[in-house]
Amino acid sequence: MITPHLPILEVVLPLVSAPICLILRSAVVAWWMAVALTWAAFAGALMLLGEVLNAGPITYALGGWAAPWGIEYRIDLLSAFVLVTVTAIGSLAILFARAPVAREIPADRVYLFYVMYLLSFTGLLGIAVTGDAFNLFVFLEITSLSAYVLISLGSDRRALTAAFRYLIMGTIGATFYIIGVGMMYMMTGTLNMADLAARLPGVLHLRTIDMALAFITVGLSLKLAVFPLHFWLPNAYTHAPSAVSVFLAATSTKIAAYALIRIIYTVFGGPAVFAPMPIDEMLLGFGMLSMIAASLVAMFQDNMKRLLAYSSISQIGYMVVGLSLGNVEGLAASIVHIFNHAMMKALLFMAVGCVFYRVGSVRLADIAGFARRMPITGAALLVGGFSLIGTPLSIGFVTKWFLLEGALEKGWWPVAAIVILSGLLALVYVWRIVEAAYFRAPAPAVEGIREAPAIMLAPLLILAAINIFFGIDGTLTGDLSIAAAQALVGTSP
Amino acid sequence: MMLLPGLFNYWLVVVLMMIGFYVVIAQGNLVKKLFGLNIFQVAVFVFYISMGKIEDGTAPILVDGEPVYTNPLPSVLILTAIVVGIATLALGLALAVRIRNAFGTMEEDEIDAAEADPS
Questions:
Q1: A211 touches chain B (CB under 8 A)
Q2: What is the SS3 string spanning chain A?
Q3: Partner-chain residue, chosen from B30, B95, B115, that has the shortest CB–CB distance to A152
Q4: What SS3 class is residue B69?
């Protein structure tokens, strides 16, 4: 009975419960509600994925209005895959959040944290399920506005300025996106993505459509933090509360990558649009710049959270390069990296959150030698680090493999070389953390600390297990993303 | 359709948008930045409403003898976007107040100086 309404329930349940938490004003109730809802959303996402695998894409007409006029929710393999990724992170991050939130955020504001968390979660799920270009903007803003609030809850006053800068940049990005959508509407008279995809080929030669694609690409790249548009990201992730860094680093840029794939491939028809408008070359260039430049900056950071933030920008480069290759392998690399990067970054930020919970600092000098006192956290950090580098048997390797395959299929040796070089640079900055954690003499603050509490370790260990499992056997995620990529590029399997 | 009168609204949109964008980039005061951002968004609202307008079209109400009416959809979309814009402005101003309380200033260069100084 519920099953046909699953797509809308995924979005509506967290949306409705956010104001309920606000009215109840209780941190405990809010946390339990958030846990129940995120796990329910995760179960729903798995059911949807199963259904999509069995019976193909699901469409849901909102309010019973048929597709081109009403808002349509459309879940294909890519949406379901992203939905599972986002809900998995959401449900693990909320378990992790309780202890650090209680410590880092004033007690009278803790319930507000969970309200914002649920709203941000709603927005992310909405982006994944919607099949309407304007609806996507609304959800993008729901998730961004609540993300600004979440970041501003950081205890450092620099969290406020970080949130403010993110607000300015994020709003410009979203506004660029609606300018582009408006231009598409002018030329086609529709906002439904499937309908747009059917009508755009007829008007692809018009300059208005060129401009639409340009505005949308730049707007989403701002949200995605591709290299020259990344300035909001490092401060936002560094000064946000630990739990927020985990949640946002693993989801918000990933969902922007999803939106970009959706617009370029589903709406504009992917490779067909690259010939008249070479945005693939542009994205390829900026993606490679992201990989290298951000890794170089990350190598010189003394703050672990800032180091990981720059490494995020470099990993975003992989997704951008993957989708700009325009072949199945490249796109599959982008899609699988949405999952992989979400898992590895959530793991790393959680490990850093555990360290911060015990030591009270994230500077490399202050946390030296912590791994001897916190062996589980240290080991988890190591697993995440290997994934970041992309060594064999880690999930980072799955992405790299697809990416290299995609680049070599096109005969683009330099791209392959840059991908490998970026992995080597990752080795340098991961090594700096590992060296500080394991081989340096313990810092004064590290003396006498204990392992993090069990409620923080449980999600950490689950994520570490996911990182190891899908690294050793990447066929499940790999096959899913290849199937999703084939559906998008339009070649039959 | 003549170039200037027919496209007047779009020229207005371009000018407004650039004014807003310039203010966001050039102004150091956080509140002025937010107002620039708001002007930038308003330009987009004008853009949407202009594209729905049909010459000699009336309000989109079904009455006899008025067959030509303006496309209501862009206006409805912009209602949503206005709500988003207000939420953004309100949140931005709230952040600006908190920043002023924390740093004692709303000028970007002074905030940057305060941030660089590890206290």
A1: no
A2: CCHHHHHHHHHHHHHHHHHHHHHHCCHHHHHHHHHHHHHHHHHHHHHHHHHHHHHCCEEEEHHHCCCCCCCEEEECHHHHHHHHHHHHHHHHHHHHHHHHHHHHCCHHHHHHHHHHHHHHHHHHHHHHHECEHHHHHHHHHHHHHHHHHHHHCCCCCHHHHHHHHHHHHHHHHHHHHHHHHHHHHHHHCCCEHHHHHHHHHHHCCCHHHHHHHHHHHHHHHHHHCCHHHCCCHHHHHHHCCHHHHHHHHHHHHHHHHHHHHHHHHHHCCCHHHHCCCCHHHHHHHHHHHHHHHHHHHHCCCCEHHHHHHHHHHHHHHHHHHHHHHCCHHHHHHHHHHHHHHHHHHHHHHHHHHHHHHHHCCCECCCCCCHHHHCHHHHHHHHHHHHHHHCCCCCHHHHHHHHHHHHHHHCCCHHHHHHHHHHHHHHHHHHHHHHHHHHHCCCCHHHCCCCCCCHHHHHHHHHHHHHHHHHHHCCHHHHHHHHHHHHHHHCCCC
A3: B95
A4: strand
Burial A281-307 (b: 16+ CB within 10 A, else e): ebbbebbbbbbbbbbebbbebebbbbb
Beta strand residue intervals within B1-119, DSSP E: none
Structure token digits, residue A317: 């480069």
Give φ, ψ of A411 to 5 degrees: 75, 25
DSSP per-residue letters across B8-29: HHHHHHHHHHHHHHHHHHH--B
Enter the tokens of residue A368. 């030296």
Binned at pLDDT 50, 70 and 90, residue B118 comes out as low
Please, what is the end-to-end C-alpha distance for chain B in angstroms? Answer: 63
Tell me the backbone φ, ψ of residue A192, rounded to 5 degrees.
-70, 130
| Regions of chain A with pLDDT less than 50 | 492-493
Res. B2 pLDDT band, cuts 50 70 90? low
pLDDT tens-digit series, residues B25-73: 998 899 999 999 999 999 999 999 888 887 777 777 777 776 788 888 8
Token digits of residue A387: 């994934």
Mean model confidence pLDDT for chain B: 87
Q: How large a percentage of chain B has pLDDT more than 70?
A: 92
Helices A454-472 and A77-104: angle between axes, nearest 10 degrees: 150
Classify residue B3 as exposed, middle or buried by CB count within 10 Å of its CB (0-12, 13-18, 19+): exposed
* Contact between B54 and B68 (Cβ < 8 Å): yes
Of B24, B84, B87, which is closest to A168 when you measure between CB atoms?
A: B24
Query: DSSP 3-state assignment of B60?
Result: coil
d(CA A270, CA A491): 12
Which chain B residues touch A186 with a CB distance below 8 Å? Answer: 51
Chain A, window 137-176: residues with a beta carbon less than 8 angstroms from a chain B beta carbon: 137-138, 141, 145, 148-149, 152, 157-158, 160-161, 163-164, 167-168, 171-172, 174-175
* Token duo for residue B30: 């956080």
Which pLDDT score, from 0 to 100, does residue A493 have?
37
Cβ–Cβ under 8 Å, residues A122 and A15? yes
d(CA A382, CA B7): 60
pLDDT given for residue A475 in this prediction: 85
Residues written for chain B: 119
Distance from CA of B21 to the nearest CA of A (A): 9
